């Protein structure tokens, strides 16, 4: 599904990713953990196509295609989804309007016809019910005045509507109360599928209790320094990151 | 830049050609007023960005020969009413088309020609453009809304610049008087036809009696080569509310002056607007809220989207006079610059002589938010679509407060049409 090789990324004059390699198979769930500032969001944003992050070496392939050649919207249409760590407030752009435009952009790319208004509303209501979101969120501006937790839930709603091939969720669990975490986990689990891959960027074991990953990676100073199964997350929770970082630089 | 002035002799001759009627004395007085000032030059503080040389030149050439009679043009009132449901009064080159006036029958509304009622009102001729307007006025309208009348259906003014067969010069004057606790809505729609030059100069006076309220929406979509100067002169009595929104997308040179005088406690003036300019358009908005009595509230809220080599000006002033205690005045002007060659000059001013006032202002000039653009792209929208969406949302901030659903819809369409130009080719 996703093949990243020796990726080096800079912003301005600062190198952030320093030869990162990661391979994500179809149907797998991966968790990426790591200290603040280690480059997790950078990785996510590079995959989504943010132009401020310059790739200076390495490659990223998505389903055999060079992802780095594509504009952000082309990546989205092919099924790459990023749940932002900090979702943007866009006052005046209707949440339902954006959802529908996004769904239609993806459909058009797949050669399907546009979703009709009724079908769209049905689908949105169904997904919102699953996420325990009030339908009134559809009529508000995109993330406008949403609480931190509501913004994260809205990201999951978008993901649920778009049914991406690859979903990267950057700290979608941060700032959620217990109930919201459960609802979000339910949303993620509902999308777990042998044809879909999911990357969870997280600081906490909590989310992984609900959404069990197949693999756990530790990102430190721009590199994956350790990979393992879900037990690695438990170990990190207990021992922190120092031992992995030390082991890596040794 | 060579200054061109209006030729007073030509003006006098043109005024002399107008038929003797109830306005003759007013015209003479206005003519003499104008003779003392002429058009303001760029040296005048309020006119430093807006050059009236082209307007003066066009005036001179139009004044040198008798103006052709007004033609009703080819307005499809039925079509217009389907778009905006209103009592439409059609005004072609400053002349009211009588049929559209006689069709207007509404309880509590009385409309008379200004020439027949000029002695019962005060006609504003205190600034050069208003005296120019009054001196050349063939006629105007006095619109009275009776005390306590609630006029549901808006009164529409379709102001047409007819430049089909010749260059034109038009003067429009309405005096609107809302009685005690009366309420009414007005829509002023500016359009033009033809490729000849045109200069339209209008003065709308509106007085809101105690407890009266008015919604007034100005929609300007005239042709690309046309010039327009417009003034709204408002007077608010105790507890009156004026909601005014002005939308400019058309024209070559547009100057709007809004003066709202607050003459009664607990009055509210909401003055807002949006201007979209591209090519070499020039749009200048000057607003003055004159707080003479407090407590009272005023809001100025203008937004601009400027591309191409266009230039827009916002000058908003709140004047709080001595004794107008308890005044609450806010001003904001936010602008999007779409090109490096576009220009915006924004200047909010607060002049305060009273105590216990709450005044604030804020202006910004910026580009579209890159983070938001990326967010939209990451959801599958092209950069182009994302830009249009964000720009529309920026304008929508003003539009969403518009009264009357079909006016709102019309305004949205007007803006969308303009945005297609503006964002499509960056307004070059
Ligand atoms: N636009 C930017 N300008 C300058 N530095 C940046 C920029 N974006 C990221 N960085 C830097 O790159 C490094 C990695 O940031 P990134 O956001 O990828 O970290 P992270 O692993 O997601 O951290 P966190 O766990 O706190 O979210 C940080 O040191 C950050 O300050
Ligand atoms: Mg991060």
Can you walk through the features of this model?
The complex is a heterodimer of chains A (250) and B (428). Chain A has 250 residues and is an alpha/beta fold. Chain A has a single domain, classed as Rossmann fold, CATH 3.40.50.300. Helices cover 39% and strands 28% of the residues of chain A. In chain A, strand 1 and strand 2 form a beta hairpin. Chain B has 428 residues and is an alpha/beta fold. Chain B has one domain. Helix content of chain B is 24%, strand content 39%. Chain B is built from ten helices and 19 strands. Chain B has helices at residues 8-17, 24-37, 53-63, 77-83, 98-102, 114-117, 128-135, 370-377, 383-399, 405-424, and strands spanning 87-92, 95-96, 109-113, 141-145, 155-162, 168-178, 183-193, 198-208, 213-220, 227-236, 241-248, 253-262, 268-277, 282-291, 296-306, 311-320, 327-337, 343-352, 358-366. In chain B, the strands form two sheets. In chain B, strands 2-1-5-7-9-11-13-15-17-19 form a ten-stranded mixed sheet. In chain B, helix 2 runs antiparallel to helix 7 (128-135) and helix 8 packs across helix 9 (383-399). Chain B is globular. Chains A and B meet through helix 2, strand 7 and helix 3 of A and helix 8 and helix 9 of B. Bound molecules: adenosine-5'-triphosphate and magnesium ion (MG). Magnesium ion (MG) is lined by residues 40-41, 85, 170-171 of chain A.
Q: What is the molecular shape of chain B?
A: globular
Low-confidence stretches of chain B: none
Largest contact between protein chains?
Answer: A-B, 27 and 22 residues
On the 0-100 scale, what is the average pLDDT of chain A?
Answer: 94
* Major beta-sheet overview of chain A: 6 strands, mixed
- The side-by-side strand order for the widest beta sheet of chain B comes to 2-1-5-7-9-11-13-15-17-19
Count the domains of chain B: 1
Oligomeric composition of the shown chains: heterodimer
Name the beta content range of chain A. 25-35%
Number of helices, where a helix is a run of at least 4 consecutive DSSP H or I residues of chain A: 9
Strand line-up of the largest beta sheet of chain A:
6-9-10-3-11-12
Please tally the β strands of chain B and state the result.
19
- The helix count of chain B comes to 10
Total strands of chain A: 12
Mean pLDDT of chain B: 94
Q: Compute the separation of the termini of chain B in Å.
A: 24 Å
- Rg of chain A from C-alpha positions? 18 Å
Query: What is the CATH T-level topology of chain A?
Result: Rossmann fold
